[in-house]
Amino acid sequence: MVAGVASALLLAGCVSAPVAPAPPTAGEVQEYNQRILDLTYDHNNLDGVTARLMSSRLTDADSDGSALSYCLSDAGIISAGYGFSSSEGFSLGTVGTTRPPKADRVRLYRCVAAHPVDPSVYGGMVSVEEREYLWQRWTGWVIPCLETAGYRVRDFPSKKLFFDGNVPIYLSPYNLLGLSNEQYAEVDPTGRPVIIMDLEARCGSPFGAIDRLDHEG
């Protein structure tokens, strides 16, 4: 079936949206957390420091990141909190322009190794199958619908970049519309922009059947 015809049928309600696949396996979560640990090591310049990633079987505290926070607190780290980037891993906040001492960066690295976090909370990890689902949903349904409504999705990544895992999963088509501050100004009682809610009501939620992603980002 020609892509344009498939999109038209989807928008007309003649074709069912793809069914969401299973979430990441335990092995994929383990690989993800190892990658985050390695990025944390590189970003914090920790040559020669070692730490072994503990099991990625998460407790409730691990899942929401509080176990990591408790670990840092118990280690006596006094810098201004910590941050996370899917391209750099974890890093400590700075006080003014002063970089946290290496001893604190080592403690951060070892806490990250001891308390791998839920990738749906940090980084929005999805399985290969889920990424395929989102690609089909966005390119075959959401983006054509937005274009029919008169909007243009800007700088949407290529399929290669998307499947290489280098694109934040929360960068959905709704975040790439180039809307003005004025368009975002009207919000509902929960603080969500009314224009985005109206477009989602017309074109569907960005994550469809992958419910857990609707609560993040």
Could you please describe the fold and organization of this structure?
- This protein has 217 residues and is mainly α.
- It has 2 domains: 3-21 and 126-215, no CATH class; 26-114, no CATH class.
- The protein is built from 9 helices and 2 strands, in the order H-H-H-H-E-E-H-H-H-H-H.
- The protein has a two-stranded antiparallel ribbon with strand order 1-2.
- Helix 1 packs across helix 6.
- The protein starts with a helix and ends in a 14-residue tail after the last helix.
Q: Can you summarize the main beta sheet? A: 2 strands, antiparallel
Provide the spatial order of strands within the biggest beta sheet: 1-2
Number of helices: 9
Total domain modules: 2
Summarize the helices and strands and which ones pair or pack.
Elements: H1 3-12, H2 26-43, H3 60-63, H4 66-74, E1 82-85, E2 89-92, H5 102-114, H6 128-148, H7 159-163, H8 181-185, H9 194-203
Antiparallel strand pairs: 1-2
In short:
The chain has 217 residues and is mostly helical.
Which terms would index this structure?
9 helices, 217 residues, disordered N terminus, 2 domains, two-stranded antiparallel sheet, mainly alpha, 2 strands
